Amino acid sequence: METQLVGMLPDALLIDLPEIDAQHEEIFCRIEALKAACFGSGPAPLEDFRSLLDYLKYHFASEERIAQQTGINFSAHAQVHRENMQVLRKAFSDVLDGSRDVHSFLRYAEYWFERHITVEDKPFAASVREVRLNFAAVSPQVAPSF
Predict the structure, then answer these.
(1) Residue 142 confidence (pLDDT) above 60
(2) Cβ-count burial of 86 within 10 angstroms (0-12 exposed, 13-18 middle, 19+ buried)?
(3) At what angle do helices 102-116 and 75-96 cross, to 10 degrees?
(4) Which of 16, 46, 60, 91 measures 20 to 30 Å from 99, CA to CA?
């Protein structure tokens, strides 16, 4: 699958798994679009916030699929994803009921993903690359399905 990055992610946040890098960029593009849409006094595009949460769920499932395909123990990482989705859903609920500002929701989401990529996704990506390299070394004539 060919992926195209538009330059939203700084090099420091690239993990060298093209599918995941493209998804990370999409997440940050969506956050930036929401920031722009919420700037000023206009109403927040609530459907776009829901779409962001749906995309995060899709992204987390992609990482879990890659881990399963490569045989990497992903249980702790998956727990981090589940906890984050709970926090983001709660924060969005707070936005809906007026007890949280949309900008604080977006700042939290952006910061959490930057930290998550650095702390959890980079080591995960290194493990995936190692498994793929080892598989290629053992079976050079067989193309891996992951």
Answers:
(1) no
(2) exposed
(3) 170
(4) 60
pLDDT, residue 26, reads: 96
Put simply, whether the predicted model's pTM sits higher than 0.70 gets the answer: yes
Q: Which two tokens stand for residue 78?
A: 């998956």
How many other CB atoms sit within 10 Å of the CB of residue 14?
A: 17
Model confidence at 3: pLDDT above 60: no
Range 82-87 average pLDDT = 95
Q: Which long-range contacts (CB under 8 A, 24 or more apart) does 101-106 make?
A: 102/34, 102/38, 102/44, 102/49, 103/35, 103/38, 105/49, 106/31, 106/34, 106/35, 106/38
